[in-house]
Structure formats: structure tokens, C-alpha cells
Amino acid sequence: MSAPAKNPDKGKGPLIPEVYIDPPSQRLYYLSIGLLCQAIKAIDFIAYYSSFGETRRLCWKWLPVDAAYCLVLSQLRIPRLRYSFSVVALQILCLWFIDALLFGGITLNLGAHGRDTVDAQYGELPSTSTSSAFSSWFGFSGASYGGSNDAHLLGQHTVRMSPISTAQLNPGGTNYCLGSATDAALVPILLNNTAPITLRYSLTSLDGSVVDYIDVSSKELKSIEHTRQLALQSAKATASARHADDYDDYDDDDDEQDKKSIEKSSLQNTQSLMHLRLPKPGRIRLERVVDASGIEARLVYPWEVLVTHCPRVQFADIPSMPEVRCAGQDGDHEFTIELSGVPPLSLRWFKQINGRKEDFLVEGIEGDHETKAALPTGADGQLPLTTARSLVHQNVKVPLSVSTTTVGSHLYVLEEVSDAVGNVIRVGTDLASVPTDAHTTTTTRSFNVLPRSSVSFHRCGPGKPTAMRIGGEATLVIGANEADKLDLPLNVTLAYAPRAGESEGKPWVKTLTSGDGYRDITVPVNAPGIYTIESVQGKFCAGDVLSPETCEVVERPMPSAKIDWKKIHECSGDTGVSFTPVMHGAAPFTLHYTTQRDSEPAREYQQTFPTSRGELLVQPEQSGHYVIKFLAISDANYKRVALDGPVIDQIVHSPALADFALPSGARNKRQMSTCDGDAIDVAVDLRGSGPWNVELQIVGPTDAEKKMYYNLQSSPAMISVPIPAKVDRDGGSFEIDLVSVQDKYKCTRPITVPGITVNVRRIKPTVKFYGDKREVTVLERETAELPLRLTGDGPWSVRYRHLDAPNQPISTKRFTNANAYLEVKDKGTYELLKVTDSQCPGTVVPNFDIYRVQWVPRPSAKLSQNTEATFDRYNGSHILPSVCEGVPAHVDLELTGKAPFEIMYNIAQNDGNGGTSILDQPTLTSIQSRTRLQLQTTNPGRVYYEVKQIGDSSYPLAKHRNVILHRSERLLFEQHIKMRPSARFANRNRLAYCQNDDLRPLDNSDDGKIVLEGTPPFTVNLMIKNMAHNTPVLKIVEVNERSWKLNIEDFWFMAPGPHLIMIESVSDAAGCAHAELNPLETMIWVDVAESAAIVPFDSSRKDYCVGEAAQFQLEGIPPWTISYKLNGRNHHQEAKTSPFSLTQQQPGVLSITSIAHQQKKCQAAVSSLHYNIHALPSAKVGAGQRIYQDIHEGDQAEIVFELDGEPPFTFTYQRSESVAKSGRQGKVLETHTAKTMDRTYSVFSALEGTWTVTSISDKWCRYPPAQPDGTLVKQK
């Protein structure tokens, strides 16, 4: 208490007047009440530690009592006990702190003596002896029962969990392969919490015939690591020394392995990385890793890795020079590709045609489709690292069909090859790095497809001859209409034949060669006749001869003229001279003449005429005598040829009016054509007074003829003009000119209007299909171009028909090119019927009127003959044999067409509602005509496969995506996937049984129920394991239902402790291996308790070992129910802890009749007991020392108890939490009681904690001694 405050509350006296109780008496009474409260508090404190009652209840009881005591004192205002408010508050806080210390509100770590220590020493002893517990607490007892300070219960065994030591092979999941015999693979091993001194791995050959076991020491591992580090440093130094220009994109690929590997900087503190050097291919399996302490590290799945030879790919042959191919001539070409590796192989390649790149991926390449050296599946039905295919290295040759129909540069590059185990090798390059001589490498092929050269005569052809001067030369031009520079020079075969009836010249055949840089060929000729191009051949490819393929060379005649003249004065009155020259030669013509007036010098003039007949008016402006002389004539071919013309000294006058009638739309084109007959009708437009007499002049190639037509009554008048004999025979052109016209007054007027040119055709137009085979094969529905050769003057109109479609009308098409193409889209036979050009109807060349069009067959697929399947005609589907879920299955397909192939198919499965749902729509690629299609077996049920589209090199799916096979043409097959059986426990609730019970259902709950999936009946393999003895028992159970509760009548729990029941495997009627079992769902724990027993601390004693209480040790799992008779009356006592004591409160006979535990289960009868005093037994854990043992997860520690006394022993041990750093006792986790005849007893545990012995009894006595408690036993 603090000192009283000075003069508090002056003027106020005590609450109780001094007349009633004087102040000293008030102080005495109130302090006595305070002492009484503290005495009661001390009694509660002792009772609290002796009865182990509730702690917080007493604390909450005294907190308000102490606060009220101080507050009431302040209100009584007793002299010398009066304090300020702050002092009162401090008093209350001090009392509350003491209450918290005494009753557990605050705990101080003061050593071994504390409530927690007592709990650890005694457990919850239901002893009724308060004085004994109190004396023990304050040290009055002669022995201490604390763990290591007790002479009878010595030592403790602490089990601590050490981190798991693991080793993982190839943690990055990287694939490894050996490129050559000198290569070696470095496979990493990730180690955690271990430093191995030895390592063992097995190397199994790829065919499984040889298995080698290799031990690697820590020294060898360090040597491998040292060599690897030196290699890395050397590689980094080399890389840094390279110039930046040498770097390309593919250098990044070299670093992919490093990115996948685990860098040491990313490792945790407990992890380390080692490497194995593997110089041979095979399956490498990590067998064990042992550290310096002899502990094997746990191997982390996957614990094996597959090392094979690296896959390779290349073209089979290397050409010695660049290849050149001809479009449409050489047909499709095949390259042979050589692949090697573990099948099936995948190949990635691309082609580039004229700069356009297309990528391709071909999968499923293998030498044959037979399974060789199949790997066995695991015990759980799961496949090992790869599927059950052959791992034998195969060499495969596959064809690559390439088309030569597209003109231009072709480049084929092999880029990448991968094998069945995931090794990917990049062998090609990108476009930027393809060398110019790419055709010489092993992974590239290039060639040029040249077009077919085509030649024809330029500016010459039928009806358009080439003229030459007499005695001179003409130049024929043979032009190449389509020719590639690589195909130059061209060799053209030219034939010459003189015209029929002409004896000059002899026939000849020559081969002409064009220059390397020139496509056209100029041919100088000096003889008239027919020149024909027979063939053309380029440097590599044969060509086509186009129309016109013939050229006629004719001689130009020398120009001549006949000049008629007359005076102009009879009708018109004009003065002058009219000359009418008729000229022969090649227009235009030029007349050279002179005029001389009187005695003046002669002046020379010239007049040009566009036609062979003209009119020249000479009308001098001055009068006089004029002499006109004609000197020479010039035409298109000859210049100033001397002319013996007339000398005229007359005055000439102009002619009268007349003209030809032009058809509508002809404008100024004065031309006519005729194909048949020896005459042609010409319309003449006459003006004036009729009837008229018209004089015409017919000008042929070499002569002229005048003809008079009389008594023409109307205008226009039709006049039949005969064709000159030579023109009528050979064809050609002639002119019709109006000479004069005479009216009814007999006045004749000369006519000078332009004449009409008449083209006489004696060669009729023709049409034919060009080519030797006259057939073409194109893709379905693709336009086919049928080559035509037309003669005559275009445009042409061609009629044709489709013989395979007789109901279709005859078609007509118009062409403007003599080398046109007839475009058709339907396959079949086409026939030419008729041709007409711009002037004349023609004929179809016999035997060249038929052309056949065929379609490239579409690819197809069917099941291989060796495929086991049943065809169902009802739905057109092939029924495949049933397989189990997850078991690899396939079908072999036989493909027709041109590789590579693309197969798009649907995968569907029943949806449970009577319909089907599509699972996937994959596309399979293959470069072989026989390929393997992997079936989906991951989901049980019926799976349907429908091939909807098939593509090949002719019909790639990218261009024919909309073309879907008709339902009747689709390949259908289906397969039933049998469900793999599985088993699991309905729940994970622990089961409880008593010792010697058989394994039968305990109740109607789902505890211990196994749920089965599959096709009944089932065979379930169970393993029952006693964790204490580590002796498993295997049981095989036949189950006919889909659920089953554990019921094995021939199995008894012979020993107490935890048991583990695990489902090892399950099989059903389908015969499939079971699905992967979940370890958490296929195991259940069973707690087996000992049969309840009550053991006296001294079974036949007449005197007690300690005190007057009869102490009993209870065996089993709490709580217990003890039945006993006392003086003939039956009593029942519940006990939650052991030991259990009964105090003889009255004379009589105490008989224990029975005891049960686990809520009145495992009941056992008990006989009468007698007592004697003997030495107390003792027990040691860890030889009486403090032992700390570190174990790894999954391992077990052996806790050895050494027992001293006279057997049999019954002792109680417990596992508690390890002592914290604060020194506070850890929480008790579990307590067990065991009975043994041996002086040593071992417990195996995989749990962490501190194991100590809390009590022990031998044949006579128990320690700690039981405390007498007469209040515990209650009569019922």
C-alpha cells in the first residue's frame, strides 16, 4: 500500500460516524476482510493446481472482487486509509496482475515448475488427494516427476523433420539426341538438400536387349561439371570474338537449349545442379542417389530420359548442274528425300515459286507400319516415357512430287525434321540466306520451268505475201512470240518450195539459229515461192509453231503506164488536156513529166497517184502552145523507170460526173471481197439524164481491160464485173475504175473518182486443234484451254459441240487471234464443226477436229486391307475392334493421288442425349501413299470418324476448302472405347476397430465404402498394413456391384495401432488395366484400439505402494467406462484419463467387473485384484539422454523405450510438440499405453515431436504412485 494522501476530502468525515464505530475499529474490520479474501484466494489457488480445474473461471471471479474491495474502501473514507483516485487505480491494477499470475491469465517462464510442467508430468490425473498434489507442487515429495530430472522416467527422444532430399533427372524436360558417334549428351540432375557421394543410373539400349548399370562418384560428377564450365567459357569467348555481321537469326536457335536448362542463378539455396555425360543412345533411368550419411534421395518423376540419334533429312541425289525443265513437256517430277530417326518422323519444308512461298508440314513418316520391339506398359497400365512404338532408328526414303506446269523459278527447301521422341533438328535456312547455287546443297533443290517457245512469221501470211524486187532480196522475220532467255538460242527449221508451175528454184530445208540475245530471226531470201516453218527447238525445250506458219514471197513487177489523153472542149467548154494514165506496179505511182510553153525552157513536174488509174489535168493559166512529155514512172518498189509515153501538144479539158455506190457504214473504204465465182456485182451511182452508158476499166496485176455497159436505166445500177483470169485462178486483188459515162445526149464525160479494190480469196479459212496428242488433263472444274490454229482473215467464228453432252446445243465462239484457245470447263470430247472468217466460210481440217479433256482424279482414301474391321452396310461404316481407354490404337489408310496428302476428318462421340457431338476436326498430312491415323482413346464411349475432305498436290485443301466429299463417298469408321476401371473410397473418414475385430462394416454410413467404375464384376486388390510392424497383408476381393463396403471376414486386427488400407489395383469384366489411382482417394486409415483393460498398479497387493488409494492403469483409448462392485452394489465410473484411482471409503470387497473404452466399446471383463508393495519400475527413452533425431519425410524414426522392473510392463508414453525457443513446454499431441514382456520396446513413427514416458507399471507397482482420492468414486 502507498502512503496516505495529505488531507484528501477535507471537511468530510468517515462514511460510518465515529459514534457508531471508532476509526481504529473500522480499519481493523476492513483490513481483516481483506485478509480473509486473500486467504480464500490462496485456497482457490491450491485447489486449482490440485484439481486441474478451469483456470479462466477463477481469474474472472477474483478480478471484480479485488476491484470492488478497493473502490468500497475509497468510499468509506476511513481515516489513514483514504487515498486519491490514482492510487486506488494503481491498487486495483496491482491486484489484477497478481490474479492473472495465479490463475493463468499471465504465464511466466520460471523453469520446470509450472502448470504446463505439471500437465506434462502427470497428465490429467483424476486423483482426489489434494495434499499429495500440493506437496508435489511445492517440492515436499521425495522424487521429482519431471522428464529428465526424474530418476525413474529418464530421457526424451525428439524427432525432427529434415527437408526432403530429392533428385530429379532432366528437370527442364529437354529432349536429347546424339548427332554423331563422337557426340555426348549432358543431362542435368537437379539435387535438393543432398550432396551425393555416389550415383547410379541404368542405360537400356533402344531395343531393350541390353541393360547396363553405371555408378558415378562425386569426383566424376565434379569432373564433368568442371569440363562443362570450361566448354561454356570457351563458347562465350568465341561468341564475343565474332564480328556482329556474322550474326544471324539462327544463332538464337543455338541458345534455346540454354534457355530451357536451369541456370544456377535461379536455383534455391538448398538446390544444386549436376550433369551426366551420356555418349551412347538409350533409355537412361536414375536408379539411386546416396549422400555421405548413406541416405538415399527421393527420385522425382520423371526419373528417366530418352537419348536417341538425332533425326536427319536430305535430298537423295545432288545434281551436277542447275536443272531446267519444260512446261507441259516433262510432266511431274519426283525428288527423293532421305530421312532417318525414330519414327514416326515429321518434316517441315517450303517451296517458293516465282517469289511466292508456301509452307508444308508432313507428319507420320515411317518405314513400315509394323510395331517392333514394343515397350511394355507399367504395372498400373500406364505407358512409359513414349508410346509402345519402336525406338529403333530407321532410314526412310519418301518421294516428293513436284509439278512443272507453272513457269518460273522453283525452289524447294527442307527446313526441319523431328522424331517421335520430340527431337527437333533444323536443317534448312530462311529465304534471305538461301545461296545462289542452292541446287547444290543437300537440303535444297531448285530448277527453272521454261515456257514452250512459239514462233510464227511476222507481217506475212496467207493472203499477205511478201514482195521483193526482181533480182533483189526480201527479208522474212520469224518472230518468237514467247521465249525465255534461258532457252535461247532457238533452232527453227524452215522449208522452201517454189510455186507450182514455176521451174525456177529448188526446194530446200534449213535450220536457222537465233542469237543468244535476240529472239527474232531475220531470213534474207532471193527467190519467190512458199516458205514454211516446220518446227522450233530451244536450248532445252521444244516449241510450238503458231499461225501464220507459211509465207509466200512474190516478185514485184516493173511499173508501167498507158496514158490516154483527149482534149477538153466538146461538152464542158473548158480548155486543157485530160490525161488518163493506167499504171501497173505497186501503188502509189508517181509520173514524171515536163511542160514547155512555146520556146520557153521545159519545166519538170511530178504527180502521185494512189491507185493504178488516175487523172491528170493540165490547164495552163496562160494560152499558148504547150508540149507535154512523159519521162518516167515510179512506184513503191522502183524509182524513175523510163517511160515511153506520148508527146502531146494539145489543150486538154476536164471529164464528166459518176461514182461507185458505197454500202452503208463503209465510209471511204472502197473495198469488196469475194470467195466464189468468176464475177462480182458492183453498184454504180449515176447522175444526170438516163439511160446511161458506163465504161469501166478492170486493172489486174499485170494488165488492164476496159468494158462498156450500155443502157443502164436506173441509179444505182448493178454491174457484173468479171474477175481477171490470173486473179480468179490464184486469188489476189484487182481494181475496178470508172472511165467515163455517157448520158442520153450522147455527151461523154470522163470519170476520175477513186476506184474499188476487190479482194479475191481462193484460199478458204480453216480451223483445227493443234498438237500431236490433242488431249489435255486439268483439275476438276478448271478451265481447259484447247489450242486452235486458224487461217484466213479474222475475226473468226467457230462452231463446236460437246460429244459427251448430246442434249447441249451447238456452241459458237468468236476469235480474233489465229492462235486462239477454246476455253471449256467440262470434261469429255469436243468436236469442231464449222469456221467462218471476216470474208468467207471455211472448213475444218480433217483428223484435227477432235480434242479430249480429262480431269485429274481427286485423291481418295480407304482402310488398308490388313486393318481388322467389320463393314456395316446399313450406315456404310467400318466397325473397328474395341480397345481400352488410353491404349494407343490406329488405322492404316491407303491413299491414291499425288503426295503430299491432306486428310481432314471429323471426330465425334455420343453426347448422352441420343445424338453425337464433334470433338475435333483435325487435318492429317502425309507424304506417303500409306499413312497411319492415330485414334482417340482418351474418353470412353463410341467414337466416330468421318473423312470429309482429302487433298493432295493437285487438289490442296487451301484452294479447295469448299469441296466436301459426298456422303456416299466418305470413309466412315467407328470404335468403342472401353472404360478403364477405377476405384476410390467414398470419403476419407478414419475407421475405428478394436483389437481382434474382423474387418466388417460398423454402421450404415459411407465410411469404408469403395466406389467402383467400370463393367462389373470387379476384382479389387487391397493391401492392409499395420504401420507399427510394417507388415502388409494382400487381399483379393470379387465385387459384383459398383459400390462395396469393406467386409473381409477372414482378416482380424491382431495388433493395436494405426492401420492403412490401400486399393492396390482393380480390374473389371472388360479386361482393361485400371485408370491411374489417386493416392489420396485410394487409402483410408483405421485406428485399432487395444481391448479395454484395467490393470492395478499392484495386482495382488494387500498394502499399497503409495498412500491408501487403489490405483489402476486403464488400457485403451479414452474415455473408459469402469464397472465394479463395492460391497455387493454395482457402480459405474467414467474416466477420461489414465491412471484411475479408487479410494476405499467403506469396508468391503472391491471387485472390478468390466471395462470398456471408445465410448463404451471394446468392453472386456475384469477379475478381482490384490495388492502388495514392491519397488517402483522405471523407464528410459533414448538411454536416458536427450536425443534429437532428424528424419526425412517418408522415413520413420525408431523410439526405443528401456524398461526396468519385473515384467510384464505397462507404460504410458506421449508425443508432444518440440520445446519452443521460449522454453515453454510444447502441447501434448497424443498419448498411448503399451504392454510388453520385453525390457525394450520400440515405436516407429514418421511424425515430428518429442517422445517421453509419463508412467510405468510392472508386475507389482506403478510409477508415479497413485494418489489417494476418496472423492473420485461416486456411487450410482
From TrEMBL:
A GO CC annotation given for this chain: nuclear pore transmembrane ring
Signal sequence bounds: none
Region (Disordered): 242-266
Annotated TM spans: 28-49, 83-106
One example of a Gene Ontology biological process annotation: nuclear pore organization
Nucleoporin POM152 Ig-like domain mapped to chain residues: 452-551, 764-846, 1186-1262
Entry keyword Transmembrane helix: yes
Boundaries of every Nucleoporin POM152 immunoglobulin-like domain copy: 556-654, 884-958
Top-level division of the source organism's lineage: Eukaryota
Domain Nucleoporin POM152 first Ig-like, first and last residues per copy: 166-307
Bias (Acidic residues): 246-256
InterPro entries found in the cross-reference section: Ig-like_POM152 (IPR056541), Ig-like_POM152_1st (IPR056542), Ig-like_POM152_9th (IPR056543), Ig_POM152 (IPR056544), Pom152 (IPR037701), TMD_POM152 (IPR056540)
Keywords assigned by UniProt, alphabetized: Membrane, Transmembrane, Transmembrane helix
GO molecular function: structural constituent of nuclear pore
Residue span(s) of domain Nucleoporin POM152 N-terminal transmembrane: 22-106
Segments forming domain Nucleoporin POM152 ninth Ig-like: 1093-1166
PANTHER family in UniProt: NUCLEOPORIN POM152 (PTHR28206)
Protein name: Nucleoporin Pom152
Biological source species: Cylindrobasidium torrendii FP15055 ss-10
